[in-house]
Design a protein that fits this description.
Number of helices: 6
Order of helices and strands: HHHHHH
Shape: globular
Distance between the termini: 81 Å
Number of strands: 0
Structural class: mainly alpha
Length: 136
C-alpha cells in the first residue's frame, strides 16, 4: 500500500546524512579564510606602522580610511567620495596608487594593491619598501 513512499524516505535519509557531512567539511575553508584575514590585518598593520601611524588604526572602521587617506597623501574630504557608489571604486584606485607612490613604488604596484591587495599589501609590509611620501 505505501511501498511507493519507500524510495522517497530513503532519499530523505541520504540528504540529511550529506548535509551533516557538508557542515563538517565547511570548517576547513572557514579556518583557512580566518587565517588569511588575520594575515591581511597584520600586513596592513605593518604598512601603517611603516608610515608612522598607529597600527591599530587599521582595525577601527572609518578611522582606518582616514589614516589610509593620510598615508596616501590624499585630502581628508575624499572620505565622502568613498560613500558614493561607483565613484568609490575610482577613488579607491587613486588612493591605492598614492599609497604605492608614497612607498617608492610605481603606479602599477598601486593597481596591484587595488586589484590584489591580499598579495601586494604583504609585499609592501614585509618587503624593503620605506615610506618616502608626504602625509597630508
Amino acid at each position: 500500500m505505501f511501498t511507493h513512499l519507500l524510495p522517497m524516505l530513503q532519499q530523505a535519509s541520504e540528504v540529511s546524512f550529506q548535509t551533516s557531512t557538508d557542515a563538517q567539511i565547511g570548517i576547513v575553508p572557514t579556518i583557512i579564510g580566518l587565517a588569511a584575514l588575520v594575515f591581511l590585518i597584520v600586513s596592513v598593520w605593518k604598512v601603517y606602522t611603516k608610515a608612522g601611524e598607529p597600527g591599530w588604526a587599521c582595525i577601527v572602521p572609518i578611522y582606518n580610511v582616514i589614516v589610509y587617506l593620510k598615508i596616501s597623501g590624499k585630502p581628508l574630504w575624499w572620505i565622502i567620495l568613498f560613500f558614493i557608489p561607483f565613484v568609490n571604486i575610482i577613488i579607491a584606485l587613486l588612493v591605492s596608487i598614492g599609497l604605492a607612490k608614497n612607498f617608492g613604488k610605481g603606479g602599477g604596484f598601486g593597481v596591484g594593491i587595488f586589484l590584489l591587495g591580499f598579495i601586494f599589501m604583504p609585499i609592501l609590509a614585509f618587503g624593503d619598501a620605506r615610506f618616502v611620501g608626504q602625509k597630508s
